[in-house]
Amino acid sequence: MPVASIQQVAREAFARRDTAGGALARDAELITRAARDMAVRFRRGGKLVVFGNGGAGTDAAHVAVEFMHPVIVGKPALPALALSNDAATVSAVGADEGMAEAFAHQVRHWAGRGDIAVGISRDDGGAAVRRGLEAARELGLLTVSLTGGRDTPPARTETRVDGPSAAHTGGDTGTGPNGKEDRADRGQNRHADHVIAVASADPAVVKEIHVTTYHLLWELVHVFLEQGEEALT
Amino acid sequence: MGAAEDPALGGGTRELYPFLYEASADPAPVWADATRSSEGKATEIVLLRRRMAEVCGDRVAVCAEQMAAAFAGGGRLFTFGNGGSSTDAQEVATAFLRPPGGRPLPALSLTTDVAVVTALSNDVGFDAVFARQLAALGRRGDIAFGLSTSGGSANVARAFEEAARRGMLTVGLAGGHGGMLTELSESGVLDHLFVVPSSSVHRIQEAQTTVYHVLWELTQHVLAGTPTGAHARPGDHADSRPGDHAEALPASGPP
C-alpha cells in the first residue's frame, strides 16, 4: 500500500505542473513569432489544417473550434479543419497505407501552399503527425509543431533542416528578435517552421501546456490580423 | 474554447491587449507587448493551478476515491461538454480508456457519435443531447462527468439531473461562479463540483485539464492498491439493466 495519503498525492500531482508551466512563459516569444506567421497566411486567404494522434486528436479538434467559432464575440471566424476528426478516412488510410499516412494523405488532398499545418504530439513519437508535417512542408505550407519532451532526456542536436520559414521570419530562424537562442532548436531536429516543445515528458502535463499554447496562438493571430500589414511584414 | 457560453469573459481584444489601442504605428512595440502579454498569461495559469490545489485539492482526492470505488464495482464513465469542453470530455474518456500507463477503464464521450448527437438535436432538442444518452446507457454505479466553462450549459445540467435520477456518481467541472452547476451542487444533484475561480474562458479550460488529469492519476493510484481483476467487468451486471432504476430513485440523487 502507498505510504503517502491520497491528499498528499493530490498536492504533489498539482505541483508537478509548475516547472513546465514556468517554462512556457519563457517561450512567449516563440509563440508570438508563430502567431505572426500564421496571421500572414490567414490574411492571404490561407486555411489551417490541424492534426494529432491519440489524446492530441482532441487538441486538434479544440484548435479547430477555437478558430472557427471564436469565444470573443465579434472576432472573425477563421477557416480551420481538424484532420483527426474524420474517423472513416483516418481508419481507411490507416488500414490500407498504414497509420503513419493518416494525416499526410489528407494534407495532400486538402491543403496547398499558402495554408497552415499544425501538428500536435505529446512525445514527438507519433509517426502520423511527423509524416503529416513532412507532407505539409513539401507542399509549402507553414508548419507549426506542438510537441513535448523537451530536455527530457537531452537529445543530440541533429542536422537542422531549414524550411521555407527562413524567408518569412526575416531570416532570424535561429534567434528571436531579441537575439535570444531559439529554444525550439535546442536538442531537437527542426521538423517544422515553428517548434514549440513543452519541457516535460509527462503526456498529461504536455497536454495542459499545449492548451495554453494554442489559446495564446489564437489570441495573438487576431492581434496581428488587427494590426494591418505593417505588423505582418 | 468554442462555445461562447461564458458571460464572465466580458470584454474583447481591447481588454486583453490594451496596448493595441495606444497610438503607435511601429510594429516592434506591438511584438514586444504581445510577447509580454503572453508571458503574463502563462504565469497566470501557473498561479491559478496552485490556487486550485489549495482550494480543492483535498476534495479532488475524495472524488477520485469515489470514482475508483465506482470502477471497482463495475461502473463505467460517461463524459460530456460543448465546444472546447467537448474536446476535454473526449480527452477524459480516452485518458481512462486507453491510458499511457495504468489500468484501462471503461469510458465513453457522449459527443463521439455524431449520428446520435445530430439525431437527438434534430428530433428532440439540443438540451436533451446528453441526458437522453445517459437515459439509455447509464445505470446505478456509473459515473457522469460533465464540463462547462460557465456552468451554464443547459444540456450538461440536464444530463446531471438524469444521472442523479439513475443513481450515478456525478462529477462537474465549471468556472467563474459555476452557474447552474453550483445550484445543482447545492441541491445535491451534483456529488462533486470543481469551479475554477477565473473570468477567462481560456484559463478556466486550462485549469480544468489539470483537475481531470489529477483525478485520473489519483483514481489509478487508488485502484493500484486493489488487486488487478478484483473489480467487476463492465458487462457483468446481471442484476442491473439500463432503465432499472429510472423511476425508483429520488430526484435528488445520492448525498
- What fold name goes in the CATH topology slot of chain B? Rossmann fold
Order of helices and strands of chain A: HHHEHEHHEHEHEH
Count of helices of chain A? 9
**Shape type of chain A:** globular
The number of helical elements of chain B comes to: 8
Note the gap between the termini of chain B: 32 Å
What is the β-strand count of chain A? 5
Major sheet description of chain A: 5 strands, parallel
> What is the radius of gyration of chain B?
20 Å
- Determine the N-to-C terminus distance of chain A: 60 Å
Q: From the alpha carbons, calculate the radius of gyration of chain A and give it in angstroms.
A: 18 Å
| CATH architectural group of chain B | 3-Layer(aba) Sandwich
Largest sheet of chain B: 5 strands, parallel
Number of domains of chain A: 1
H/E series of chain B, N to C? HHEHEHHEHEHEH
Oligomeric nature of the chains: heterodimer
The second-level CATH architecture of chain A is 3-Layer(aba) Sandwich
Strand order, sheet with most strands of chain A? 2-1-3-4-5
Poorly predicted regions of chain B are 1-11, 238-255
Q: Would you kindly provide a brief summary of this structure?
A:
The complex is a heterodimer of chains A (233) and B (255). In chain A, 47% of the residues lie in helices and 10% in strands.
